[in-house]
Automatic annotation (TrEMBL), chain A:
InterPro entries, A to Z: F-box-like_dom_sf, F-box_AtFBL13-like, F-box_dom, FBL15-like, LRR_dom_sf
F-box domain ranges (all copies): 23-63
Gene3D superfamilies (alphabetical): 1.20.1280.50, Ribonuclease Inhibitor
Protein name: F-box domain-containing protein
Highest taxon of source: Eukaryota
Automatic annotation (TrEMBL), chain B:
Official protein name in the record: SKP1-like protein
Pfam families: Skp1, Skp1_POZ
Role this protein plays: Involved in ubiquitination and subsequent proteasomal degradation of target proteins. Together with CUL1, RBX1 and a F-box protein, it forms a SCF E3 ubiquitin ligase complex. The functional specificity of this complex depends on the type of F-box protein. In the SCF complex, it serves as an adapter that links the F-box protein to CUL1.
SKP1 component POZ domain residues: 23-81
SMART domains: Skp1 (SM00512)
Region (Disordered): 1-22
UniProt pathway annotation: Protein modification; protein ubiquitination
Family: Belongs to the SKP1 family.
Stretches with biased composition (Low complexity): 1-12
Organism: Oryza meridionalis
SKP1 component dimerisation domain location: 126-171
BP term (GO), one: protein ubiquitination
Gene3D superfamilies xref list: Potassium Channel Kv1.1, Chain A
Amino acid sequence: MRRRKKMTTSPAAAAAVDLISELSDDVLLHILSFLPAASDVARTTVLSRRWRHLWSAAPCLRFAVEPAPPPSTSSRRADTGSRLVAAVDSVLARRAIDGADVETLKISFVFSSSPNDGGGGRSAFDGDWHDHADDIESEHVAAWLRFAERHVTGDFRLDVPTLPRQRRQAELPSSARFKSMRLWLAYAELTVPTAAAAAADRAFAALTDVRLSTVKVDDVNGRRLCDLFSSPACCPRLRRLTLEDIVGLTELRLRLDAAHAATLETLKLLGLPDVKAVEVDAPGLRELAITGVSLDEMAAPPMISAPRLRRLTFESDETCRGSGLMVLDGARMEIDILSHGFSGVADNRDLAWFLQHCAAADRLDVGLLVPLGEVTKLKGHITYVL
Amino acid sequence: MATGSGAAAAAADAEEKESGSRMITLTSNEGKAFVVTEASARQSATIRSMVDDGGCVDKGFPLPNVDSKTLARVIQYCDEHGNKEAHTVDERAALAKFDKDFIAELDADKAFLYDVTMAANYLHIQGLFALTTQCIADTIKGKTPEEIRTAFGIEYDLTAQDEEEIKEEDTHA
């Protein structure tokens, strides 16, 4: 690696040699992609001529609130939030003029509790936690979604914890270039395109990962949402789908046509309080997680057909009655079931029913989580359990 | 290796290939040869694809863009990540500690840090590249432009016209 040694003129920095500027554009852009706030990225434009226009090609723009400051510093939190809103608006506006595409756009006003916050983080939603996001209006969200549709070529993520109570609305963004889309929209009423329109626009042609959280749908848009994810013409590459905390979704019907490439491998249904009917037909599904869906209140038993399923996670506060869970070829399947049975109050009949229907299973590992006080009660029965 | 029938030897060869216990020679731009395990060399996607494409493993791989000092340090990283297991919590913690010490040492010598970054980029060693670029990004994070210039010795060479543009952008922002 040969480099030009260049001394700065400032005597204070006499020992410092500008080596960073001699890294290639690719490397510098990669470094910029690590900066947590796009405002940090924007600041590099005034460093020197070498850096002047570098950022306009930065492939990743990430705007995120830093790890949560304590609630007691709420004025500082609010300040951080409004500055971030301004930074997002100004950077995106400039970027839109430059016309350079963005590979990854992440805008998150949700404090993440851990760096690898895959799904949880919901604990951060207790109490008065969103003073920092008070400045976000539906208009901001609409503008950010529009920018993403036009300029994002890969991963798009928008996490908005709160919106003003009136006019909480959003349109599901679509782009033939999105590879992943993760939206957390503060229970905004979501408008969804029809499957036919989406297919005609090739609206989700490259999409492989979707996580849709905290939205509200009416019957029409709920149905459209299911149609969209069911249709190989709309989402020909969809591999991982998570629907989380969706209000108003009453019927969950995902019928993936086996004749087409059944690409969906992972499906997570987390907290769908209004679902009254479940029908999933996913020939390629490998992993299924169901949490916070009241299966017992349904008019008809949920029907899930996933002949290639390998891993099932099921967690419910209620025992599930008479569900038509159909699992074939589960020889190497891992099942993770949390079943709340209290001695003398409820039994685990339904769980047993379920296990009995996993005909291909040849091994069963059981883990017991017993409250301390219950241990003595359990003692006499433990051999029976084993 | 124990001698045996041809088939047994072939099977042993296959097994050896499988476990990555072959040795591979990497040569720096100064002509110095470094012999590393295949598992270590495979940390580099560049070398990995050459090996998998049936490249001449026996002749070794010349690396005209990497000097000896940098290559030695890069190999130190690859050995740690390629030769050691990281299955248990303890093993992963040990590896994380190694990374932490490794990058702290590099951070103290910025010129060397850039050399290692460029080598990691050229050799496509994803983990190492992420480690070094993250370290550089951390230095930029939250600093004013003047602080960044001082930290990296960047010369201020913006023209009056650039400054005018910047002022313009700021009022729009």
